[in-house]
Design goal:
single chain; 220 residues; alpha/beta; five-stranded parallel β-sheet; 8 strands; binds adenosine monophosphate
């Protein structure tokens, strides 16, 4: 089976998109582009756009479609997506973004191989989000209960000893992000179903069980 390497990762906040994208990237060398991560970098800039993006992320809202679509268009133009493929984590999150992505890829002569939808029941999401943190140096993701670093207090990947939690990973913002997922992002699911691209994966099990399921879909 040929490897699918033009991939969109969808799913509610806390469904494991970033974690599974990281695993796919390590296994197959397909670069991951996390739009949330790119927006967090924009939000750290002391500019008008940076301040606007920060305010939206901190309250759990989506940034305007034009902003996230522009980031993805720039990524597709400037990165080696033709040779290496891509995993888009967290984009599209609205129908407008899905349509923008179709146009962006067409302009580059590219198309998607698969849209992976990680499905996780609502009652799992809070615990997953509240317990998660990342290495401050390399960004590798961990969870206090489900995926702590093997060494206990040092990052498995780079040995870093400083960890950070996301400012938007709190109970109040999680509820808002879930509401937005249901209202704005879920309508993207039928868009990709109609194109025959959507594959649902049960994302509720342990990390390695979910990544085995994804392996069956993506190949390699
Ligand atoms: P994530 O890291 O994917 O959970 O994204 C963190 C936050 O970044 C989201 O709650 C949104 O505020 C913003 N964000 C990420 N991706 C998008 C997107 N495709 N469109 C709009 N806002 C986004």
């Amino acid at each position: 089976m040929t490897i699918k390497n033009h991939i969109v990762m969808m799913g509610p906040p806390g469904s494991g998109k970033g974690t599974q994208a990281q695993i796919l990237q390590a296994r197959l060398g397909i670069p991951t582009y996390s739009v949330g991560e790119m927006l967090r970098r924009v939000s750290a800039e002391d500019t008008e756009l940076g301040r606007k993006v920060k305010a939206l992320i901190d309250k759990g809202s989506l940034v305007p479609d034009e902003v996230s679509s522009e980031i993805v268009a720039h990524t597709m133009k400037t990165r080696d997506v033709h040779e290496k493929g891509f995993i888009l984590d967290g984009f599209p999150r609205s129908l407008g973004q899905a349509e923008a992505l179709t146009r962006i890829l067409e302009e580059e002569g590219l198309s998607l191989d698969v849209v992976l939808l990680l499905e996780v029941p609502d009652n799992f999401i809070e615990e997953r989000i509240i317990g998660r943190y990342a290495c401050a140096r390399c960004g590798s993701m961990y969870h206090g209960k489900f995926n702590p670093p093997k060494a206990g207090d040092a990052c498995d990947v780079c040995g870093g000893k400083e960890f950070v939690r996301r400012a938007d990973d709190n109970l109040e913002t999680v509820q808002k992000r879930l509401e937005i997922y249901r209202a704005v992002t879920m309508p993207v699911i039928p868009y990709y179903e109609e194109k025959g691209l959507l594959v649902s994966v049960d994302g509720s099990g342990p990390i390695n069980v979910v990544s085995e399921k994804i392996k069956k879909v993506v190949g390699g």
